[in-house]
Amino acid sequence: MFATLKSLYKTFFKIGMFTIGGGYAMIPLIEAEVVDRHRWIEKKELLDLIAVAQSCPGVFAINMSIFIGNKLHGTKGAVFATLGTATPSLLCILLIAMFFQQFQHVSWVAAAFAGIRPAVVALMAIPTFNMMKQANISLLNCWIPIASALLIWGLGVNPVYIILAAGIGGYIYGLFLKPSE
Questions:
Q1: Whole-number CA gyration radius for the chain
Q2: Is the pTM higher than 0.85?
Q3: What local confidence, expressed as pLDDT, does residue 141 receive?
């Protein structure tokens, strides 16, 4: 469980370096490194951190690194983990900004970016299905996330209303409908 600030930075640098497609694409990497390899947090705790990081303002990947770094080393840990996560993206953006004008019309560059898109979708789908299993979403209740997604995407319903409705629904379910354990 022990992590030095250097190992925290290096781990999150590695996670940040291979996170093409945003914070959700990094969930499998965080799980592999932080839960499985280093055992800094438990798998259930990761699920809780994902939920909290999603609901907090800011970048998901940075929120995750802040929470994990803070748990391990307080404020210093949060700073080192955050810098580790952000450094690869910063360097990549600087390099792209320096040379993009020269290469934006090259066909193989455009094709490479188009080829990356399906891989990003797969990287986001895997943690989604894993979270569904851990959250006990089954055929009986899978209509809830599907209906929520359709309401947001198809009808333009504000996600805040969906979250409020889910919270109220969960509260009512817990009070009246859920059988006693």
A1: 19
A2: no
A3: 83
